[in-house]
Every structure is written in structure tokens, then in C-alpha cells.
């Protein structure tokens, strides 16, 4: 639903008056707004709506989202979330959302879950990894909707969103959203069905329905075992994650991918571009955006863009946390595989794995180095003459120092 032009003009005028430094491209057509720094200066302090707030907190509590976030009734059209360093603001338009609760209550719930998902997953909410973050959100909605019982089937969810212009469909087309909703829905379904069945994570048949895909160790990574003294106080695999992932996020690796391995899990960083001194490039040159948790061939064809714009060096860290031997399979890792790892991994450590008690676990860092030669401009793994040893890469990336007291 579009606002009348004159309101939009007025709205934009207010924005222009209050924000001189940023470009204005607010299209209020889209429900569930993403980040926008300029929104901090827009008028959003309206009267709160108790019914909407209650709904939001009901979901947040049931889903265990304890991260502090503030709710503000705002002038944006729909629901949105923006992030300010450590704090999230959840914005909602009380008139719009009320209307939606009457006309399409399930969509209203989905929109609330959408914003909560960004908060729950600690998203950056800026445009660098927009496709990945948005796609992670839809998987989350599938899981949360199942857990909260707000829909009886995943098809009901699909119907709720299909007849409504919704959240930047040019970024994530509907077929892709459906696939992600289904994936999220099915992953929780699998957990509930296997219900406390000891050892079920190691069962080959169950692995297909795990909340995390199984890591296929391949290529020629260099290894470095992280000193165990860094993890002295850890009791469960979740404790290790709560040291590793914030340390990585602080260094800019905000988009982590989780995989399952027998006895534990793997955290992967995205492929980052580095210079010859082993330092990450700045800004957008460091990363490429990619979707999370789906198979997208034929839909958006992300994988076709394997040819990179310029020659350069790239790397990827994988942190393997396990007390078992992980077999290595043959083959090299090329750009396509590296990116598919990041696309298909989970966004967080599922409870089933997180609760495992530490019992002889080690944390091994695998370092994959890639090169994009000028001649082919295709990313290939460097198995000889690597720029640095794994330990030095960890130092250059700031990772090793981040664990030092
Ligand atoms: Zn979003």
C-alpha cells in the first residue's frame, strides 16, 4: 500500500531537513524495513500500541530473544529494525500494523518475526550482506512459526505472504522465500521428531535433516591448533562458541556459517579479500554478498558470478571444534565450493550441538588460501607457495590476539 504522494513528499522533506549527510531513498511501499542510518533522525516517537507491543514481546520471550532492543512506534510503513552499534530499534507503524492484524494476521506475525529474526541473529543490518541476512531471516521465520504454532502448515505461511507486496521482493523473490521457509520449518520438525534420541546426530539418515549440514572437509587447508588455554573455562560446546563467534564478529566476520561434524561443529568465515601482507581489504572490497541456507541454481544464479572483477588473494577460516578425527575427502576447493559452504551453512549453533559437554575437544583452525590470477580471473585454491602459514594468517587477521587476555 502506497502512501499518498503528498505525505511522502512531506515525509521526505522532513528527512531532508533533519538529515543533510545521507541520501534519501525511503520507499514506504515495503513492509519490514531494514537498516537505515537516516531513520535515527526521522520522526518515530509516536504513541505506543499495547496490543502490538504485547505481541512482539510474547514472541520474543517464547523464542528466547533476550537481546535488549527498544520498540518505537514510527512513521515508517510497516515494521522495521535498525541497528546502532550494540542496540537494535524495532520500529512499527501502529496504524499500518493494526490494519494488517485485522486483514492478514498471519502476515502481521510473519513481519514481527522478520524483525525479531534480524535481532535474534545479531544481524548487521547494512547493505554489505543484505541478501544473506534477508535469506537467513526467512529460514528463521519457518523455524519460529513452527515453534510458536502460528501456522498449521508451511503452505499457510506462504499464502500469507504471497498476496502482499512484501519486503523488497527484488532482493529475495518469492520462490526463494518459500524454499527458505520450508527449510526452516523442516529443520525444527526433524528435531522434534527425533526428540532426545541419544546419538541421533551421528545417524546418517538423520544427518540429512539436521539443523546443520555436514561439513565436507576437502581441499588443502593449512592447520593450526588453537591453544587450549584460551578455552580453559569452557564446559560445553556452546561456551566455545560464545568465545569464538563474538571474537570473529568483532573483527568484521559478522556472517558466520555453521556446519556439523561428528563430535562437534565447524564455524566458517566468509571468503575475504586480502592484500599481499595478509591484511583484509577495507569496505565492500573485502566481501561479496551471497544468500544463506538455500539452493539457488536456476532462481537467482548467484553461483554463475564466479568470475571476480580483479586479480587478488582471498582466504577463508574454518574452526573445527571436535573430539573426533574428521576424515578428509579428495579434491580442491574452488570459488564455487567456497561460496556454497557459506551459502548453505547454518547461522547459529543449534541447541542439540551446543549442549554437548566438552570431553577432549580441540579447536583446529583450517586456513584456505585462494588466488585469482589475472589470466583466468577464476578463484582457485593455493596448495603450494601460500602467502603465509596458518598461524600468521590468524595473527594478520587479528584472530589470535583477540583471545589473549
Ligand atoms: Zn529484513
Number of helices: 13
Secondary structural class? alpha+beta
Shape: globular
- Counted beta strands: 10
* Contiguous uncertain segments of 5+ residues: 1-29, 292-308
Q: What's the quaternary structure here?
A: single chain
Rg over CA atoms, rounded to whole Å, is 22 Å
Distinct ligands, ions and cofactors found in the model: zinc ion
The number of distinct structural domains comes to 2
**For the terminal residues, how far apart are their CA atoms?**
53 Å
Helix content: 25-40%
The largest pleated sheet is described as: 7 strands, antiparallel
Listing every helix as H and every strand as E from the N terminus to the C terminus, the arrangement reads: HHEEEHHHHHHEHEEEEHHEEHH
Strand content: 5-15%
- Average pLDDT taken over every residue: 77
